[in-house]
Amino acid sequence: MRTIGQHRDEVAALLAPVLAERGTETVALDALADGAGAGRGYRVLARGVTAPVPLPVFDNSQMDGFAVRSTEAGDVVRVVDPIPAGAVPAPLEPGTAAPIMTGARLPDGADAVVPVEATPPGAFPAALELDALAVPDGTTAGTFVRRVGSDVALGSELARAGDPVTPALLGALASAGVGDVSVVRPVRVLVVSTGSELADGGARDDGGARDDGLDGAGAVIRDANGVALRAALAEVGAVARGVRLSDAAETFLPGLESAVGDWADLVLTTGGISAGAYEVVRQVLEPRGLVVTPVAMQPGGPQALGRVELAGRRVPVVAFPGNPVSALVSFEVFLRPGLAAAVGAPDRATAELPAAESADSPVSKHQVRRGRVADGCVHFVGGPSSHLLGHLAAATHLVHVPLGTDTVAPGDPLTVWSLR
């Protein structure tokens, strides 16, 4: 059996060309702000952006107050018409001060702002009634003024190729009048759930006959993997489609090739790679390039990967076990790290915490348990079995019991990954 580290490296090597060859697309800022169809909106710039205007684009007031000439510090000047944000003000004449709101353009002739708090009324709108203003001694040029270009200079590099498109970057681009940008296209993943017994997630059994001869009542298993893995992929910026294929070898390959077409960058399968009699993924895809590589991990021991001949091209395929917890743990351990790093999504927060209770573990495998953290300790949630999806849903952490450990005692340190 491979170790977890060995298999993770193999998955990373398989994924590297996928990430490098995605191509680019031009997307409007509004679409990027809405996610642009890619998971939670994790996108990466394909090309750098040069600032077409300086930011700020004009000198403006940092405070609600009065625009003044610093050379008139210590003088009493006449108050003229106010300047709201968005107005293009008239030049400020000598011997005058203009009420000005935060963000409003500084008039020509003014080079400082006196905060409204420094006036006898202390606030607007009462300060609008002032006829004259005593410019405080010590008022200097630039006081409470945001200078043009003080944030971003005209023609400077606003963002570089490879930068993640963060909310702050979107705001800066919008401020500079950039309407769209070139971004790296999201990874397109075909999620394949295998099994003649599968029905839509959430579908109700109707007890009717099925085309494979099985009775609907009691034979249907709802497809949890397709829904869960598509959601997991969306969290790291991938675009996923799901398809369910039966265990019949004669229909599996045509169905898979039709779904792959020229769309999928990566195929992620669940089920069909173990030692049973109907392991269709293994039986059909091994001759085409899939390599079955068991890993010393529980759950998630059965694993496979390879570049497989599909739809006239060699397509990267990662194959996970079919049990829902096995599939999701496999995603977290093997596939999520590379996809997250490619788009700047955060890593799982990791900590080492003492176990709150004892547990057994197979000494020849790295066990991944589910848990919750309370009072500085990690508490196991449910058992180690790979079908306990409800327990995984209730857990907040994955708990790693390393290879070579047969018993965990209370207080033993364990590595935990936060899932939330």
From TrEMBL:
Assigned EC number: 2.10.1.1
Catalytic activity from the UniProt record? adenylyl-molybdopterin + molybdate = Mo-molybdopterin + AMP + H(+)
Under Gene3D superfamilies, the record lists:
MoaB/Mog-like domain, MoeA, C-terminal, domain IV, Molybdopterin biosynthesis moea protein, domain 2, Molybdopterin biosynthesis moea protein, domain 3
Q: Which InterPro entries match?
A: MoaB/Mog-like_dom_sf (IPR036425), MoaB/Mog_dom (IPR001453), MoeA-like (IPR038987), MoeA_C_domain_IV_sf (IPR036688), MoeA_linker/N (IPR005110), MoeA_linker/N_sf (IPR036135)
Keywords assigned: Magnesium, Metal-binding, Molybdenum, Molybdenum cofactor biosynthesis, Transferase
Domain MoaB/Mog intervals: 190-341
Protein's pathway: Cofactor biosynthesis; molybdopterin biosynthesis
Alphabetical GO biological process terms: Mo-molybdopterin cofactor biosynthetic process
Instruction: Write down the required cofactor(s).
Output: Mg(2+)
Q: Which GO terms describe its cellular component?
A: cytosol
Pfam family of the protein (one) = MoeA_N
| Entry GO MF terms | metal ion binding; molybdopterin molybdotransferase activity
**Domain of life of the source:** Bacteria
The record, for PANTHER family, names: GEPHYRIN, MOLYBDOPTERIN BIOSYNTHESIS PROTEIN
Record's family? Belongs to the MoeA family.
Please describe what this protein does.
Catalyzes the insertion of molybdate into adenylated molybdopterin with the concomitant release of AMP.
Protein name as annotated: Molybdopterin molybdenumtransferase
Q: Which organism is it from?
A: Curtobacterium oceanosedimentum
